[in-house]
Amino acid sequence: MLGKLSFRNAKRQAKDYVIYFxxxxxxxxxxxxxxxxxxSEDIAELSNSMTNFSKAIIGIxxxxxxxxxxxxxxxxxxxxxxxxxxxxxxxILGIEKKDIANMFTIENLMIGLIAFVVGTFLGIFxxxxxxxxxxxxxxxxxxxxxxxxxxxxxxxxxxFFGIFLLVLLNSxxxxxxxxVYDLLYAxxxxxxxxxxxxxxxxxxxxxxxxxxxTGLWTLSLDFxxxxxxxxxxxxxxxxxxxxxxxxxxxxxxxFIVKYYLENKRRKYKKNHLFxxxxxxxxxxxxxxxxxxxxxxFAFIMIGGNVALMMNGLLNNEIEMGYPFEIMIGSVDPDFSxxxxxMEKNTTVTDMYEYRLYNIPKTEIDKAFEGxxxxxxxxxxxxxxxxxxxxxxxxxxxRI
Amino acid sequence: xxxxxxxxxxxxxKYYGNKDNLAKAIDDISxxxxxxxxxxxxxxxxxxxxxxxxxxxxxxxxSSGHIYLNNQDITExxxxxxxxxxxxxxxxxxQDFNLLDTLxxxxxxxxxxxxxxxxxxxxxxxxxxxxxxxxxxxxxxxxPYQVSGGQKQRxxxxxxxxxxxxxxLADEPTGSLDSKSARQLLEMLEDMNxxxxxxxxxxxxxxxxxxxxxKILFLKDGRIFNKIEKGERERKEFYHEILDVxxxxxxxxxxxR
Lengths: 399, 257
Ligand SMILES: Nc1ncnc2c1ncn2[C@@H]1O[C@H](COP(=O)(O)OP(=O)(O)O)[C@@H](O)[C@H]1O
Ligand SMILES: [Mg+2]
What we know:
The structure holds two protein chains of two kinds.
Chain A: H1 2-16, H2 18-39, H3 41-47, H4 51-82, H5 84-92, H6 97-137, H7 150-177, H8 180-184, H9 198-224, H10 231-262, H11 264-267, H12 272-321, H13 336-345, E1 357-360, E2 381-384, H14 387-396
Antiparallel strand pairs in A: 1-2
Helix pairs in contact in A: 1-2, 1-6, 2-4, 2-6, 2-7, 2-12, 4-7, 4-12, 6-7, 9-10, 10-12
Chain B: E1 5-16, E2 23-34, E3 38-43, H1 49-56, E4 64-69, E5 72-73, H2 82-89, E6 90-93, H3 105-115, H4 120-134, H5 149-161, E7 167-171, H6 179-195, E8 200-203, H7 207-210, E9 215-220, E10 223-229, H8 235-248
Parallel strand pairs in B: 3-8, 3-9, 6-7, 7-8
Antiparallel strand pairs in B: 1-2, 1-4, 4-5, 9-10
C-alpha cells in the first residue's frame, strides 16, 4: 500500500513540478554531454596539444555539479514544505516516520531515475552537437556517430546520484526531525505573501539590468587589456551575471503576476485567475529554475566563446611564432642532407638558407614587454641576422 | 452499570511563547470521558479548544499535567512508540478532511487497515461493510477531488472509525461544510456513536453541531467555564440550553454562527 502511495505521489509530483523535472533532466543531459567530451578519445587527441582544454571541461563539469547540488536541494526543500501537511497526515494516521522517509526517498528516486535515463539520452545528442562544434573549431573532420560511452554514463551517474542521495538523506533527516504539529500547521504561510510591491519588483528588475552591464564592464576590463588579464575579474563578472539572472527572472515573473492580479478586469478574464493563482503558488520555484536553466545556457555560451577565442589566439600565436612550413635550425653550417631529403620527399617550392649571429646582450628585450614574445630572450646574448636575409624572408612571406 | 473511563485529563496546562511573553492557551483543565460518550468542547475562537484537542491527540504536548488514554499516559509516550499508539488508539476527523489526494476514497480508508496489518482478505470486507453503514459505497472508487466536501468528510469519518479506535477526535468537522452536509455528517457521527459504540470528542463553535453531543464542556480563556449534559432531553431543547450558556459566556455569541 505504501509502495502504491509512493508511486502515485511520484507521478503527481512529476506533473506538478514539471519545471523541476525538466531542469533536472537538462542538468543531467548537460553533465552527461560534458562528461562524454571529457572522456572522448577523438577530443583527447586534440587535447594533447592543449591540456587546458580538458581542464576547462572539468571546470565546467564542476560548475554544473555545484548548480545541481544547489538546485536539487532547493527544490526538495520546497517540496517538503509544500507537502508538509501530507506528511503530517501520514504521521497522525500512525505511519512510522521511518516509513514516511522511505516513501519520500522512493518517490524521489523514481523521479531522479527517469530524469537520469531521459537526460542521458538527451545528452547523447547534445554531445554530438558539442563535439561537432569542437571538431570544427579545431578544423578536424568529424562524422556524427551515436556514441555511448559507459565511462561518461558512469561519471554522470556517480555525480548525479551522489548529490541526489546526499540531498535525500538531508530531507529524510528533516522528515524525522520535524514535529507533527509544525507539519500540520505549516501551510498557514503562503508563497503569495512574499510577492513584493510593484515598485519593489521594478527596482529589482532595474538592479538586475544594471548588474548585467556592470558584469559586462568588469569582463571587458579583463579582456581589453590582455597584459593584466587574470581570471579574477572574469569570475567577478560571472558572479554579477548569476545574481542578475536570478533577480531578472524573479522580478519579471512576480511583476507579471502582480500586474494581472491587481487589475480586476484582466484578473477575471477567461481562466486567467486560475492560471495566475496556480502560477503564484509556484512562482518562487519557477523563477529559480528558469534562472538556473538560463544560467546554465549562459555558461555554455560563454564557455563556447572563450573556447573559440582561445583557439583564435592559439592559431595566431602559431602563425606568428612559426610562419614557415618548415624551419630547420642547426649549429652545423652544412644543410645539404636536409635539402636532399626535402627535395625527395616534399613539394617545397622555395628554400632559403641564412645565418644568425650572436652579439652581446642589448636592450631590445624591453621592446617586447607586454607582447607574446616577452621573456623569450632568456639567453645571455641576442641574435641578429643580415638585412638582405631579413628582406628575403619577408619576401617569402609576401609582406 | 459502571462505564470505563477511556480518557482522563488531569490538570493540564499549555503555554505558548517564552518566559517574558507567556500566553496560557490552557490553564488547568481536568475532565474525564467515558467509553461510548459523544462529548463536545465549545468556546469562542481563541479559547483553547484546538490546543486542548491537539494535546489529547498527541499533535501537541502539554506544558504540565497528565492525559491518560486507556490508562496509558500519553504525555510520557516515547517518540518511537507514538506512531503505533496513534494507529491503534486514535481516529481523526479534521476540518479540512486531510484525505490523501493521490489515493481513491477506498484506498484512503484501506491505508489505515494496512498500516494496522489487517489481513488483506478482511480489508475489502470491512471497508464495504462500513461504507454501507455510512452511505458512501457509490464514491469508493473516486478520488477526493471528484467528490463534494460533505462526501469527503463522510469518508474521513469512515477512515477514522474503520479500525475501531479507542477515541475519535474531531476538530470543527462541520467547519468547511454547508448546513445540509453538516447536518448529514452530524447525524452520521451520532449514528457512529450510538450504534457502533464509537467514543467521540468533538471541538466546535457551532451550537447546532454541539447539540448532537451528549455532554458539552465550555471553555473560556483556557479554563472550563461550564459543563452541561443532554440527558434524556430532545436535541432542540438541548440546543436552546447551549445558546443560553453561550450568552452567559459573555457577549461572544457574535463569534458563534
Ligand atoms: N502555536 C501557537 N503559538 C502561540 N500561541 C498560540 C499558538 N496556538 C494557539 N495559540 C494561542 O492559544 C490560544 C488558544 O488557541 P486555540 O486553541 O487555537 O483556540 P480555538 O481553537 O479555541 O480557537 C489563542 O490565544 C491562540 O492565540
Ligand atoms: Mg480552533
